[in-house]
Amino acid sequence: MFRQFLNLRTGLAVIAISIVTGTIFYSEYVSRKIRKEERSRVTAFGESLKIKAATDDPNVLEFTGRLAIENDDIPIIETDEKGDPTGNYMNLDSAKVAGDSSYLRKKVSQFSTENDPVTVEITKEPLTYNKYYYGQSRLQREVRYYPLVQLLIVGLFIFLTIMSLRSSYRSVQNQVWAGMAKETAHQLGTPVSSLEGWVEMLKEKPGNEQIAQELEKDVNRLRLVSDRFGKIGSTPVLEDVDLLIQIDHMVEYMRKRATGKIRFSVESHDQSGIRARVSPPLFDWVIENLLKNALDAMEGQGSIKVDIRDEAKAVTIDVTDTGKGISKANVANVFKPGFTTKKRGWGLGLSLSRRIIEQYHKGEIFVKHSEPGKGTTFRIMLRK
After folding, report:
1. Are residues 154 and 132 in the same domain?
2. How many CB atoms lie within 10 A of CB 100?
3. Are residues 75 and 108 in the same domain?
4. Which of 65, 135, 346, 362 has the highest CB neighbour number within 10 Å of its CB?
């Protein structure tokens, strides 16, 4: 499904690029036609002024006046041969023209960058002519910016489509995770119950007390694992707990299973009673995963420090090790399902940890800092 999602996203991008590219070429084609038509209209306007100045025929004057009236959107300025405005202009703000003696010159300079002026010959002997500088009409501006508007619309459509598909993909992924978790808990339930029965039978027979005690610890551990998977597939109940006690318990659990060359420490900065609402079994699972990863990264020697701070808006928990660290290329992938640098790892521990913290506890978990050869710090943030 993930591959289909990528293919669909690529297909949408190709379609969007094709639409926008086609629109740009078509808009340029239309723009050229409009520019050609507008230049013809400016030329006609200049010729009408020439004719108007040379006749008193009312019919001719009416015709030339109609040409001026019909041009209600192209700004035009008439200049002499040297480019000095003669005072004739169209579709400009007359108040600005009257209030600023250099306004027409400024507009001539602007229009000269937009279109080449139209030259209309006035007399042949001696040769005199006027120039007509003109700017872009409203229609020309709309055609020019239309591809940008369409690009924004198409981009927004693709963005919303991808977000919808991504949400659907995550929903299916969540259902798969929940189904696998429930099935795992179900499969573990039967043999664990059977083992609990055998443990009780061993307790009843003299001489098996030590065996029964050790076996009971392992059975309880299996029961805990089954309980955790069961909670992954359903909405867990959050409890108000003392995080120092909760974390100390997990650190002690991991200390007993580590070599004597691994040093553990918990720092609370003289704060006590740091409380937060968590699901104890699932939260323990997250801390256990981080501690196990730290142990694996150090290969038998080093130190692990858990730093807990009760801040104004959140409780932060930093788990720092002095292991081999994570390369920059892998930092972005450590929480992805299936990603692992271990020879026998499944790549699910950190992925489950993120799901537990973000979805069930509405918090954050991320790599705060990592440097190859020096160690890694993972941070958990539980908002108050």
Report:
1. no
2. 12
3. yes
4. 135
Task: Give the model's pLDDT for residue 357.
Answer: 93
The CATH number of residue 332's host domain is 3.30.565.10
User: How many Cβ atoms from other residues are within 10 Å of residue 272's Cβ?
Assistant: 8
Give CA–CA dist 288/299, Å, rounded.
17
Is the pTM value of this prediction over 0.85? no
| H-helix or E-strand spanning residue 129 | strand 128-134
Most confident of 9-13, 157-161, 212-216, 243-247: 243-247
The runs of H, that is alpha helices, within the chain are 2-53, 58-70, 94-99, 103-114, 138-204, 209-232, 243-256, 280-298, 328-331, 349-355
Pairing of strands 85-90, 76-79: antiparallel
pLDDT at residue 153, as a whole number: 79
CB 262 within 8 A of CB 303: yes
Backbone φ, ψ for residue 224 (5° rounding): -65, -45
What pLDDT is stored for residue 260 in this prediction? 80
The per-residue pLDDT of the chain, averaged, comes to: 82
Q: Is the dihedral of CA 18, 23, 25, 26 positive or negative?
A: positive
371: alpha, beta or left? (left if phi > 0; alpha if psi -120 to 50): beta
